[in-house]
Amino acid sequence: MKKMLKKAAAVTLAFAMVFGMAAVGPNAIAAKKAPKLSKTKLSLSGGTMDDLKVKKNKVSKIVKTTWTTSNKKIAKLTNKKKTSVTVNAGTPQTDSSATVKAKVTYKIGKKKYTKTLKCTVKVYGSSEDIPNVGGWSVAEDPFVPSNIIVSVEDTIKAIDPSISFKPLALLATQIVNGTNYRVLGVFSNAKMDMIPSYAILEFNQSSEGTWTLLSTTTVLKADIPVFEKKAEAGIGDWNACEGEDVKIGADDKAVFDAAVSNLDGVNYTPIAKIATCEAVLTNYCFICEKKIVVPNAEPTYCLVYVTGDNSDTGTFGADVNGTDRSVDDFSELRLAGV
Fold first, then answer.
1. Is the model's pLDDT at 208 over the cut of 50?
2. Pairing relation of β-strands 197-205 and 137-138?
3. How many CB atoms are located within 10 Å of the residue 238 CB?
4. pLDDT grade, residue 143 (50/70/90)?
5. Contact status, residue 112 vs residue 63, Cβ threshold 8 Å
6. Least reliable range by pLDDT among 16-25, 33-42, 189-198
7. 129: which residues sit within 8 A by CB, 6+ positions away?
8. What angle do CA 167, 172, 177 make, to 5 degrees?
9. Could you read off the pLDDT of 145-174 as tens digits, one per residue?
10. Going by C-beta distance under 8 Å and a sequence separation of 6 or more, which residues neighbour residue 137?
């Protein structure tokens, strides 16, 4: 009897192990290798379109994909294929959403699986409401988070270890196939023994988290000195702003607005503080977006030096030094001896 019980227990254990492996093995593999959508969230302004794609994610083959939408008036689907579809935004009066589903049949080896993938599509009733999709917008906060600093520095090192780029301020962002970042920083190249200069670089962080350098959009004039961060800055010394110090406070903004109030024909939007100098007056250096007041004018970047009076006299001055002006042009904007 005991032998029979032992034999039955052994058989039961064997069956449990076999079925346990069958339940865990293939399903676990299928879960890890299941296809993915190129985007799980999509933002569109009314009347525009974008593509969704099915990524194989190491599966053997995409056999079939059935595309559906929860609301054809908000997100109409065209050009339906096994691995892609075009999402056409409607023209709602108010911001609206729809869900696009992809029921994907795929193979891992010879075995077939099916999985439904989803993407939330938000369509904005007015193109003015869409948050930064397809166009650059000045960053609300110029502080560069530590995770972005690490990603930017690692991206540059991977391209060329001799190149150094120290991020200082986040100037603008853009939502296109992930997120693009426009970053101001100090650029240098050890191979070329170059003097460090300010540069504006653009990076893309894909929806999968991969970072890519897109371009070096602007290198501010080489003769513009790079400010250094000093532990103790003396009277008359420029001291670089880093970290939280790049943010523009209410008092800084008041000084800036007063300084540029007499500069007609151009709008200057301060983005970040680059450096300050304590003297008889407090001096500032701001990185600004500059836009000439004419239709469809393209914005550029420039440095604006400002003097502010610490007393109650309200005496301010500004000096603009940008990539599109020569040294001789500065005198017309020098309102005070900066």
1. yes
2. unpaired
3. 19
4. very high
5. yes
6. 16-25
7. 45, 95
8. 105
9. 888 999 999 999 999 888 889 999 998 888
10. 131, 172, 173, 174
**CB atoms inside a 10 Å sphere around CB 184:** 25
Q: What is the 3-state secondary structure (H, E, C) of the chain?
A: CHHHHHHHHHHHHHHHHHHHHHHHHHHHHHHHHCCEECCCEEEEECCCEEEEEEECCCCCEEEEEEEEECCCCCEEEECCCCCEEEEEECCCCCCEEEEEEEEEEEEECCEEEEEEEEEEEEEECCCCCCCCECCCEECCCCCCCHHHHHHHHHHHHHHCCCEEEEEEEEEEEEECCCEEEEEEEEEEECCCCCCCEEEEEEEEECCCCCEEEEEEEEECCCCCCCCCCCCCCCCCCEEECCHHHHCCCHHHHHHHHHHHCCCCCEEEEEEEEEEEEECCCEEEEEEEEEEECCCCCCCEEEEEEEEECCCCCCCEEEEEEECCCCHHHHHHHCCCCC
Per-residue pLDDT band at 273 (split at 50, 70, 90)? very high
Lowest mean pLDDT among 127-131, 205-209, 233-237, 297-301: 127-131
pTM > 0.85: yes or no: no
**Tokens matching residue 256:** 């800036």
CB burial of 287-320 (b: ≥16 within 10 Å; e: otherwise) equals: bbbbeeeeeeeeeebbbbbbbbbeeeeeebbbbb
User: Which two structure tokens, joined as six digits, stand for 290?
Assistant: 């500059």
The amino acid occupying position 302 is C
Rounded Cα distance between 225 and 212, Å, is 28
Cα–Cα distance, 216 to 211 (Å, whole number): 15
* Closest by Cα among 278, 282, 258 to 270: 258
Tens of pLDDT, residues 220-271 = 766 677 888 888 877 888 899 999 999 998 888 888 888 777 777 888 888 9
Measure the CA–CA gap between 157 and 84, rounded to whole angstroms: 35
For residue 161, which amino acid is it? P
Nearest Cα to 68, choosing from 98, 31, 109, 95?
A: 98
